[in-house]
Amino acid sequence: MTRQQEIIHRLRLFLLGLAGFIFAGVPVELYFAEHTEQPLQFVPFVLSGLGVVAVLVALLRAGRGATRVLRAVAAVIALGGLLGMYFHLTGNLAFAREIQPNATATAVLADALRGAAPLLAPGILTIAAMLAVAGTYAEANDNYE
User: Fold this and answer.
1) Tell me, what's the pLDDT at 31?
2) From CA 145, how far away is CA 137, in angstroms rounded?
3) Measuring CA to CA, which residue among 52, 80, 56, 77 is closest to residue 66?
4) What are the two backbone dihedrals, phi and then psi, of residue 78, each rounded to the nearest 5 degrees?
5) Cβ-Cβ contacts under 8 Å for 104 (sequence gap 6 or more)
6) Rounded-to-integer distance, Cα 126 and Cα 74, Å
7) Is the pLDDT assigned to residue 74 strictly greater than 90?
8) How far apart are CA 33 and CA 10, in angstroms?
9) What is the pTM of this model?
């Protein structure tokens, strides 16, 4: 293995390990934040579990198949994270409108951005998915000729 291949291999392990750590940590944080009141709130638990499994498969059974599975799962997780951001924003908007029905649109939007449901929190799943995909870049089994 050349020095460059060694560096790429270490970077891949770091990115996949970091993604796996995030996927494993998100459910813990959600549990302590009591993100379990409605059925829709369990979606990030499922997505995180899928992420952990996909990263482990990519690490333990490296190859084209595992890479493709990881990339597909990461796409689903990233979409789920973006949808979570949307649901957080719309929930905050609805609450702000309910509390201040006569407020201007700007005031409602400002309140929604500062609302109880953190707007960027679901984005951590999207970030972890992007890290996992980045960790599959230039895999030894890829053919770039």
Assistant:
1) 94
2) 15
3) 56
4) -60, -45
5) none
6) 8
7) yes
8) 34
9) 0.85
Largest CA distance in the chain: 67
Q: Please report, for residues 36, 53, 86, 106, the alpha-carbon distance to residue 136 in angstroms, rounded to integers and kept in the order given.
A: 32, 15, 28, 42
Please identify which residue in the block is written with the tokens 């990339």.
71
Write down the domain spans for the chain.
3-82+121-134
Residues whose CB falls within 8 Å of the CB of residue 42, separated by 6 or more in sequence, listed in order: 36
Report pLDDT digits (tens) over 12-23.
999 999 999 999
Tokens 């059974």 locate to 61
pLDDT above 70 covers a percentage of the chain that reads 94
User: Tell me: the pLDDT tens digits for 97-143?
Assistant: 999 888 899 999 898 888 888 888 899 999 999 999 999 986 655 54
